[in-house]
Amino acid sequence: MARAALGLSIIDLGKAAGVRAATVSNFESGGDAYASTIAKLQTALETRGVAFVGDGEASLNGGEGVRLRL
C-alpha cells in the first residue's frame, strides 16, 4: 500500500532500498525477509514521506496502517 501510494514501481522501491525487485515482490506477496531488508524498505518509504502507524497509535481509523505525510 505504501509503495502504491507513492506511485513507486517494485523496481523503483528496490533501487531506493538497495535490494532486488524480486525481494520487494516476494515480501509484498507475504514471503519472508530479513529484518535488515525490512528496515531498508521502511527507511526508503519513510524518506519519501510515509509514516507507519502501529496498532493503538493515533490514526484516522484507530488501526494499523500507513499515512502519507504531505
Please count the helical segments. 4
What is the strand arrangement across the widest sheet?
A: 1-2
Distance between the termini: 16 Å
Order of helices and strands: HHHHEE
Return the structural class.
Answer: mainly alpha
Number of strands: 2
Sketch the major β-sheet.
2 strands, antiparallel
Shape descriptor reads: globular
Beta-strand residue fraction:
5-15%
Helix content: 40-55%
Please tell me the overall pLDDT. Answer: 84
Return residue spans where pLDDT drops below 50 for at least 5 consecutive residues. Answer: none
Radius of gyration, in Å, reads 12 Å
Fold and architecture overview:
The structure is a single chain. This protein has 70 residues and is mainly alpha-helical. Helices cover 49% and strands 11% of the residues. It contains four helices and two strands, in the order H-H-H-H-E-E. It has helices at 2-6, 10-17, 21-28, 35-47; strands at residues 50-53, 65-68. A two-stranded antiparallel sheet has the order 1-2. Helix 2 (10-17) packs across helix 3 and helix 2 (10-17) packs across helix 4 (35-47). The longest helix has 13 residues, at 35-47. The chain is globular and about 35 Å long.
